[in-house]
Amino acid sequence: MKHQILQESYQVSNEAKGFYHENKYIKLKDVLSPDVIHYYNSIISEEVDKLNSVTLPMESRDTYGKAFLQIFNLWRENEEIKALVLSKRLAGIASELMGCEKVRIYHDQALFKEPGGGITPWHADQYYWPIDTDKTITAWIPLQETPLAMGPLEFSAKSHQLVVGRDLGIGDESEVEIKKNLRINNFEHVIEPFDLGEVSFHSGWVFHRAGANQTDQMRKVMTIIYMDANARLKQPENPNQEKDWHTWCPGAVIGEEINTPLNPVIE
Is Isomerase there in the keyword field (predicted)? Predict the structure, then answer.
């Protein structure tokens, strides 16, 4: 293994577990070393450059299109990226925070916010997922230091308690309506930069967003979505969940464990 740290455990304190349980997000320092981050910045950037098909100029895109370039399931394209996505270190943190014995992959996603890229509107990820449990979590891994001007991930602490807005996909409406509901209900809006090697984890139902990239550098982020290894496929509740079923867990059966070649358990 080129990067031994990927197979080493990260000590998740009881305090961190308690914070996550209450707020449904957490930022953890020094999850990955600077050399690992620099290495994966290069490797993932190469794959994104190779696979990116977006050609529209920024001014011609809608709000979603301006938010980021996104490339999915890079673990299927590159063995080194597979080592990161299926690493025991990251999966162990996800398991500890969610309180489950093992996790499996839903999918990974590179999110590159271009210089001048727009906001990522308020949303909850699990609107898109046909998964029957709230034991879902996303690791958000910046591939560089991420100051406020670059558009780091922002969280609405404890907002998993809010049901209103869960039926909205990412877009102009979600930004306006969810922002209003969060303000009315007085949820704390957390906006902080990310240090090199700092990784955040957030649950599928906590509301979050990101600011615009006001720098002249690409904001590069790798994300990995994990779910409880025992998670089952539920009847899709919207067209996005129907699409996700056939794209990210093809062959899974409603009511049964999501056990497909695209959703391996991390041992």
Answer: no
